[in-house]
């Protein structure tokens, strides 16, 4: 009867565990009075925002009190800040990169490091170079994030080595975004590990379409701006508030049982739950819908309740994974229930051991 208890518990303790979209802002603007840092701070309790601070093509020569104040206010409001360093595609001396990282660590209370100009090819020495940067950041604080920016698709080895926690795999003009195709391997990982930047997109309507499109493209981090080259990152977009509101609306509609974050709850999500069944310390990507870190029957129940639902308007979901037939879904459900119930005794034994 324990399975029944588990299911009843699941019904009573349903909560949301969204892999929410995170707005990743290259915040390459000085925090003077009335700067865009204020608008970011005002939005930081509405949506997840990661701001990349960049005082002077890196941390600059001295700690800057205006940056301290802006960063602290933004983080107090819920925002996250990572510090910009450049790597010249692996040719900048490693000691210079780590010295910049150490300055951020000494001068500012932040959440990690953004490594710009990341190479996206071999040989292994390149991967080692970036792994050394990664290890240096983690030696300062294991919870500090490393975001790498190849600016375009990259090799899976960069993720596996590892060289970064998140990868910026699109940085280009708005007109190129519809035809962009992420590397196929991205879909095998948590969408939160990938970030897309789009600049030179003048239309707020198109911006909203691209946000929904991004959801179907294995990305959890996004930023769209109407600012243009040569520096599209020294202002916030004129439609900033509309972008914040649109991301907040998308996040509110995200389905906890959409384990692969493609906007639709279907058989592919159930497969992910089956693979992850029994896992602890698990993420949504592994099948944990209710955010308790365990993949179990409670999460299956959420999948069942949300099956067939989509978090995307019709236009954007048209390109999503095809719907499985009802019969296929029923068969998968039966398999899943069998897997679930047959493994319960093991779990019960473990609990009493
Ligand atoms: Ca500009
Ligand atoms: Ca899905
Ligand atoms: Ca769970």
Question: Can I get a quick summary?
Answer:
This protein is an alpha/beta fold.
Widest sheet: strand ordering? 1-2-3-4-5-6-7-8
Work out the strand percent. 5-15%
Helix count? 12
How many whole angstroms does the radius of gyration measure? 22 Å
List the ions, cofactors and other small molecules found in this model. Answer: calcium ion
Kindly give the count of domains.
Answer: 2
Proper CATH architecture of the largest domain: Alpha-Beta Barrel
Structural class by helix and strand composition? alpha/beta
Element pattern in H and E: HEHEHEHEHEHEEHEHHHHH
Q: Would you give the CATH topology of the largest domain?
A: TIM Barrel
Q: What is the CATH superfamily classification of the largest domain?
A: Glycosidases
What percent of residues adopt helix (DSSP H or I)?
Answer: 40-55%
Mean pLDDT: 86
Query: What is the general shape?
Result: globular
Characterize the largest beta sheet: strand count, sense, and whether it forms a barrel.
8 strands, parallel, barrel
Distance between the termini: 19 Å
Low-pLDDT stretches are 1-18, 313-328, 340-353
User: What kind of oligomer do you see?
Assistant: single chain
Supply the CATH class of the largest domain.
Alpha Beta
What does this structure look like?
41% of the residues lie in helices and 13% in strands. Strands 1-2-3-4-5-6-7-8 form an 8-stranded parallel β-barrel, surrounded by 6 helices. It has 353 residues and is an alpha/beta fold. The chain is globular, with a radius of gyration of 22 Å. Helix 1 crosses helix 10. It is built from 12 helices and 8 strands. The protein binds calcium ion (3 copies). One calcium ion binds at residues 227, 231-232, 234-235.
């Amino acid at each position: 009867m324990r399975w029944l208890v588990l299911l009843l518990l699941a019904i009573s303790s349903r909560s949301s565990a969204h892999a929410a979209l995170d707005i990743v802002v290259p915040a390459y603007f000085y925090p003077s009075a009335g700067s865009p840092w204020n608008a970011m701070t005002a939005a930081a309790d509405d949506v997840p925002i990661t701001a990349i601070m960049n005082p002077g093509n890196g941390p600059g020569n001295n700690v800057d009190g205006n940056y301290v104040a802006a960063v602290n206010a933004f983080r107090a409001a819920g925002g996250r800040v990572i510090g910009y360093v450049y790597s010249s595609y692996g040719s900048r001396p490693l000691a210079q990169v780590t010295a910049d990282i150490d300055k951020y660590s000494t001068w500012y209370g932040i959440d990690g490091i953004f490594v710009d100009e990341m190479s996206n090819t071999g040989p292994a020495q390149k991967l080692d170079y970036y792994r050394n940067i990664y290890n240096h950041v983690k030696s300062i604080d294991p919870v500090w994030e490393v975001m790498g920016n190849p600016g375009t698709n990259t090799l899976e080895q960069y993720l596996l080595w590892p060289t970064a926690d998140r990868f910026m795999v699109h940085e280009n003009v708005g007109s190129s975004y519809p035809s962009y195709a992420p590397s196929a391997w991205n879909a095998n990982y948590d969408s939160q590990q990938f970030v897309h930047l789009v600049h030179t997109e003048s239309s707020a309507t198109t911006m909203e379409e691209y946000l929904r499109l991004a959801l179907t493209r294995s990305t959890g981090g996004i930023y769209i701006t109407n600012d243009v080259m040569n520096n599209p990152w020294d202002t916030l977009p004129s439609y900033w508030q509309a972008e914040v509101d649109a991301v907040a609306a998308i996040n509110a509609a995200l389905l906890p049982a959409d384990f692969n974050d493609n906007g639709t709850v279907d058989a592919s999500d159930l497969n992910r739950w089956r693979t992850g069944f029994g896992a602890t310390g698990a993420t949504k990507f592994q099948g944990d819908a209710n955010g308790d870190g365990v993949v179990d029957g409670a999460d299956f129940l959420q999948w069942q309740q949300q099956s067939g639902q989509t978090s995307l308007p019709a236009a954007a979901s048209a390109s999503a994974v095809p719907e499985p037939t009802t019969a296929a879904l029923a068969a998968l459900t039966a398999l899943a229930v069998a897997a679930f119930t047959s493994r319960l005794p093991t779990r019960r034994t473990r609990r009493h051991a």
